[in-house]
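To the structural biology subgroup,

Please find below the input and predicted structure for Phosphoserine phosphatase, which we are adding to the shared reference set this quarter. The sequence is reproduced verbatim from the submission form. If anyone notices a discrepancy with their own records, reply to this email rather than editing the shared folder directly, so we keep one authoritative version.
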Amino acid sequence: MLLSNLPQAPTDWAAQLASFPLWDLRLDSLHGTTHPLTGGWLVLFGHDLGARHLQQLAPLLALEGIPACLYPVARIAGVPLLLIGTDSFSTVLADIIRSETWTIDICHLAALPSLTEPGLLVMDMDSTAIQMECIDEIARLAGVGEQVAAVTAAAMQGKLEFADSLRSRVALLAGAPVSILDDVAVNMPWMPGLKLMVDTLKQAGWTLAIASGGFTRFAGELQGALGLDAIFANELAVADGKLTGQVAGAIVDAQAKARVLSQLAAECGIAPSQTVAVGDGANDLKMMAVAGLGIAIHAKPLVRAQASACLDHHDLEGVICLLGARACADTRWSGSTPRLS
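Predicted structure (tokenized):
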């Protein structure tokens, strides 16, 4: 079947593809098969997902000589999704896909965690679980917003060592009333999809934690609201109702985040392949590197270049898409499509 003959919307493909459980994806066509490929994965998802994206992808696979097969269409977290199995994972293909312009999110992965098995997700907080950098907002209310925001941006881009940058930013907050923290906490904008992601993973029996270079006051707020299993963040020192300009205790930096993920997985008996790290900044890279799957969300260029998966068009519902995609490999065309939330 020629790709050009497919209806644009994947939800309309069932009638054309009902004769085979799987379809080999070639340069410009699909060919029915009963032989699945599981050496690597391509996950394509987005409200704009259509046949044109297969037409964009197929030549890239052909150029690299990578066999691929299409699994049943899914709809996960309300988002249309295609899972494509490959005979192997290719770092070259992953880099090529990153360099292309897409109107959807597409990831080439060596392995996919499964929601049918116990798992662990550790996420950053600022600009990941929430749509703000808490220290920047504290600084704005304290009258030093511009100075702190500039340092925050440089640190998240990997231009400054995180611990030193945090100390220098916190020092600028000395003398600010501790009540500022309450003002920030009650106005934290959650990242869209946060509650859906947490509820979906908790229902699947997963462990969820925050590992943040931000502060316990705000991570604790999220833990209480969402029922997270653990939080790891920095503690702002306070004296006489005011911030002292110091961080109390050891700083949660990039290495600490990676250690948190590894220790939680060991304590909970979770296989490394079932661990997921989600973040946006340079101080999340080590945590992503030790996870079975590292997901960058609305990330800085340095992080996008190194993360296994990138969410550019989706918020945290995109995490559910990636973790629910594996179910498509166990589904056959039956006139209905697999769904999750």
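Summary notes: The CA atoms of residues 120 and 207 lie 5 Å apart. The chain has 13 helices and 15 strands.

Regards,
Lab coordination
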